[in-house]
Amino acid sequence: QVQLVESGGGLVQPGGSLRLSCAASGPTFSSYAMGWFRQAPGKEREFVAAFSSIGGRTVYADSVLGRFTISRDNAKNTVYLQMNSLKPEDTALYYCAARTWSRPVEEYDYRGQGTQVTVSS
User: Fold this and answer.
1) What is the number of other CB atoms lying within 10 angstroms of the CB of residue 23?
2) Mean pLDDT score of the chain, rounded to an integer?
3) 82 near 72, Cβ under 8 Å?
4) In this structure, are residues 70 and 58 in contact, taking their beta carbons and an 8 Å threshold?
5) Are 105 and 59 in contact (CB under 8 A)?
6) Which of 99, 116, 91 is nearest to 51 (CA)?
7) In sequence order, what are the residues at sequence separation of 6 or more whose Cβ sits closer than 8 angstroms to the Cβ of residue 37?
8) DSSP symbol at 99
């Protein structure tokens, strides 16, 4: 079983940036496809970004395309989400997730507890 722990959330002004980190432990990190999701109060879970292929291709939600970047460091068993040009509507609990490569990017097998991101002036 994969254990995931997020960090890096916080309060940021509109237009600002944050970088989220997700440290993974358990089975071989590189065996899983990693992604990020978010959920705002009263709203359903929303896919944010993920690796879509073992070769490193990525996919993003339209709402974050061009502003967010997902990356990973296999040596550190860590996946990152760089978030730039943040907007108030980006406010949510962000959590990373791991899925087997055969699963669609909108699904996952494991998830972390999440880290809160609040965008407000």
Assistant:
1) 16
2) 93
3) no
4) yes
5) yes
6) 99
7) 45, 46, 47, 48, 94, 95, 96, 97, 108, 111
8) E
E strands within the chain? Answer: 3-7, 10-12, 18-25, 33-39, 46-51, 58-60, 68-73, 78-83, 92-99, 110-111, 115-119
CA 59-64-69 angle, 5° bins? 60
Q: Which token pair is 18?
A: 């944050």
What are 55-91's pLDDT values in tens digits?
789 999 999 999 999 999 988 999 999 999 999 999 9
The per-residue pLDDT for range 30-52, each reduced to its tens digit, is 788 999 999 999 999 999 999 98
Reference 86, options 66, 70, 72; nearest CA is 66
14 is written with which tokens?
A: 């509109």
Cα–Cα distance measured from residue 113 to residue 57, given in angstroms and rounded to the nearest whole number: 25
- Distance, in Å, from the CA atom of 106 to the CA atom of 48, rounded to the nearest integer, reads 9
